[in-house]
Amino acid sequence: MGGKDSLLTYFLFKKFDFVLLDVKLGTMKALILVGGYGTRLRPLTLSRPKPLVEFANKPMLMHQIEALLEAGVTQVVLAVSYRAEQMESELRAETDKLGITLTFSHETEPLGTAGPLALAKDILASGDEPFFVLNSDVICDFPFKEMVDFHKAHGKEGTIVVTKVEEPSKYGVVVYSDQGRIEKFVEKPTEFVSNKINAGMYIFNPSIMKRIELRPMSIEKEVFPCMAKDAELFAYELQGFWMDVGQPKDFITGTTLYLKSVREKNPAMLYSGPGAVGNSLVDPTAVIGANCRIGPNVTIGPGVVIEDGVCVKRCTILRDATIKSHSWLDSCIVGWKCVVGRWVRLENVTVLGEDVIVKDEIYINGGKVLPHKAISDSVPEPQIIM
Amino acid sequence: MLVKAVILIGGNQKGTRFRPLSLDLPKPLFAVAGFPIIQHHIEACVQIPFLKEIIILGYYGVNEMSQFVGEMVQLYKLNIRYLQEFEPLGTAGGLYHFRDQIRCGNPDYFFVLNGDVCADFPLIEMLEFHQTHREKQQAIVTLMATEATRQQSLIYGCIIENKENNTLEHYVEKPSTFISTLVNCGVYIFSPEVFHQMANVFNKKQMDFYNVENGSSVEREALYLEKEILMPLAGTGKALVYQTLKWWSQLKTPGAAIYANRHYLNLFRERRPERLANSDQPTIIGDVYIHPTANVHPTAVLGPNVSIGAHATISYGTRIKESIVLAHSRVLDHSLVLYSIIGANSEIGCWSRVEGTPCDPNPDKPFAKMENAPLFNDEGRLNPSITILGNNVTIPSEVIVRNSIVLPHKELTRSYNNEIIL
């Protein structure tokens, strides 16, 4: 087991680009907690499983998988939660198309946040190497190599990545010593305790399996506190941006942070064509008309058509959508294949599901529109349109 | 035969519901379908054969009206005068006060039209009606009447007509309970005998004033047409009712101006199609009036029911619908204006949306008139209505102004919804 070099071939999902990647086999594995139907990201997730919704023009799952592969991980297990059979088959179909071999771990009864680890024990704990566990909604500058170095340096059983946030009381905060040894967790504190929260990324040694039973178990409530008491849990401070993009408002904010990071690392990727303002990502197959204003913080997917005189700010426009002339969009997500008419105004985290048609001159303020709907009346106050 | 017409226009104290549009300009001069409200009246009067003079009566200052009157005289080559009441004299007081002016030349009849109504005025038919019927009845006045819904009739003057001889049986102004669905349009034909009637009422009032100790001198000389002249004539056979099926509406609110704009543009389509815009560039939908000096970009899409005033600028990729844009205003690139009135010399930035809510009559009820909702609802919130920008208002780019009223000379910095912005 292990130690053998082998070839891992996969297609990058940019069409017609084949890349043969010769990855050195470490033997590290990763478990991505994909979870269930992604109800917070509806109406987008009514058409597609959340891991396949494109964030910054790349399926959310692929952001993590590519970073993992680059860090030497060879096997990725997707933990799909209870009652998500359909999602597993959709995901499998997509990843097969991408040429990646993934293993699916599927709960037949709800196992909570720790149980999935036990379910995948055979793969995760098959060797001595530690393994990653990731929450699938997390976007950041994945520091997987640094995490491994940090984990091996302290030599204890577990590493939790923590990140600084402005409003920690909405989450659970992590309290740790200067060396990083975690002392305790405080859920939704009522007074300021710390501004570091659990960023949803971990490294564990296979020995953690002793602490986990194959039953519904909460890793935060049942496993971590014990590990902290045993001084086996350490905190790795994440540098750079972090976002849980599991709901539309955060999806849009996360895009802004991600694009800022692209500006710093690889500015040539950003859109600099006519009408560009700030940081935007535009797929080369998208068509942009005259007199437009694109950006800041816009991602435009493949096959998108933006007609003349359109202003798009802080939006995600998914594949094959069309935005007709003179419309104005701010802080929205436009789903796949949508057609947005002329002189339309969309704002305030309006989300259009797949194949929505918005007629000319409509105003939508904070609307969440379910797939295949035609909108012919304005929606001036936030609401859900079925 | 000799006929005259009198148009009653009131003054600044009246017509406050037309604010903010009437803050800088007398309401009768506000442009609907490209022409001042009372110019539509004048045009209807000019069609009458034997019409020799039009007198405009009100208590706006003479200097406020003189330019308009001068233009009308030039345009229609007719005697048109503005006479200013020295104080508010009520709906009939001015007529009585200026009776010599009206009577001079010995007109056989004179029309009286309310300045705050709008209609497809059937003046010639009404004149024929009055001429044929008055002989039998010795009538001194014919009222123009129209159908309204039961509920809406309560805000008008209600008429009971004797169908056998078309006389006025009963008349109540704004009753508290239902009287009749037939309502008074505020358009009349009088024979000069009516001045005897008015003299009687006037003199009696003066006697009362002098006989009572410490009598109030306020409105001493005011006379009210509906209450003091018409009501007493009901049942005497001296007043006739001419019912019209043509379009008629009150024009008391800015919402009514949008409604009237649509109907007058529609009438132009029937009678004066040369006044309407007709081209491929800019794209015209339905009835649209564009002043010859206005500057409209070929990519703009205008209509239906849009009036663009003198020297207005309508820029690249704009969309204007069901709205009135007054003189010297600028609508910049990609913006949308819908159910709104844009005051003179105002500016709307790029990619902005100015939008109102129409107050159209209920399409399910025959004869329904425009909704005349109060400004605020029961919870104290502004009722959704036409968006109005007073003159010299600036709307920045990329905002939405919806169902709001913006007073003149205001510069907005953000979006607004359902508000009055002082």
Brief overview:
The complex is a heterodimer of chains A (386) and B (422). Chain A is built from seven helices and 33 strands.
- The average pLDDT of chain A is 87
Helix content of chain B: 10-25%
- Global outline of chain A: elongated
- What is the strand tally of chain B? 32
How big is the Rg of chain A?
22 Å
Report the β-strand fraction of chain B as a percent range: 25-35%
The CATH homologous superfamily of the largest domain in chain B is termed Spore Coat Polysaccharide Biosynthesis Protein SpsA, Chain A
Organism (chain B): Daphnia galeata
Family (chain B): Belongs to the transferase hexapeptide repeat family.
Protein name (chain B): Mannose-1-phosphate guanyltransferase alpha-A
InterPro entries (chain A): GMPPB_C (IPR056729), GMPPB_N (IPR045233), Hexapep_transf_CS (IPR018357), Mannose-1P_guanyltransferase (IPR050486), NTP_transferase_dom (IPR005835), Nucleotide-diphossugar_trans (IPR029044)
Spell out the blueprint of helices and strands.
The complex is a heterodimer of chains A (386) and B (422).
Chain A lengths: L9 E2 L6 E2 L9 E7 L18 E2 L2 E2 H11 L4 E6 L4 H14 L3 E5 L8 H5 L1 H4 L6 E5 L2 E3 L3 H11 L3 E7 L7 E5 L5 E6 L8 E9 L14 H11 L3 E5 L4 E3 L3 H18 L14 E3 L4 E2 L4 E2 L3 E3 L4 E2 L4 E3 L2 E2 L4 E2 L4 E3 L1 E3 L4 E2 L4 E3 L2 E3 L4 E2 L4 E3 L1 E3 L4 E2 L7 E3 L1
Parallel strand pairs in A: 3-6, 3-8, 6-7, 10-14, 16-19, 17-20, 18-21, 19-22, 20-23, 21-24, 22-25, 23-26, 24-27, 25-28, 26-29, 27-30, 28-31, 29-32, 31-33
Antiparallel strand pairs in A: 1-2, 4-5, 8-13, 9-15, 10-13, 11-12
Chain B lengths: L2 E8 L20 E2 L2 E2 H10 L4 E8 L3 H15 L2 E6 L5 H8 L1 H5 L5 E6 L2 E3 L3 H15 L3 E7 L9 E6 L4 E7 L8 E9 L3 H18 L13 H9 L5 E5 L4 E3 L3 H18 L11 E2 L3 E3 L4 E2 L4 E2 L3 E3 L4 E2 L4 E3 L2 E2 L4 E2 L4 E3 L1 E3 L4 E2 L4 E3 L31 E3 L4 E2 L4 E3 L2 E2 L9 E2 L2 E2 L1
Parallel strand pairs in B: 1-4, 1-6, 4-5, 8-12, 14-17, 15-18, 16-19, 17-20, 18-21, 19-22, 20-23, 21-24, 22-25, 23-26, 24-27, 25-28, 26-29, 27-30, 29-31, 30-32
Antiparallel strand pairs in B: 2-3, 6-11, 7-13, 8-11, 9-10
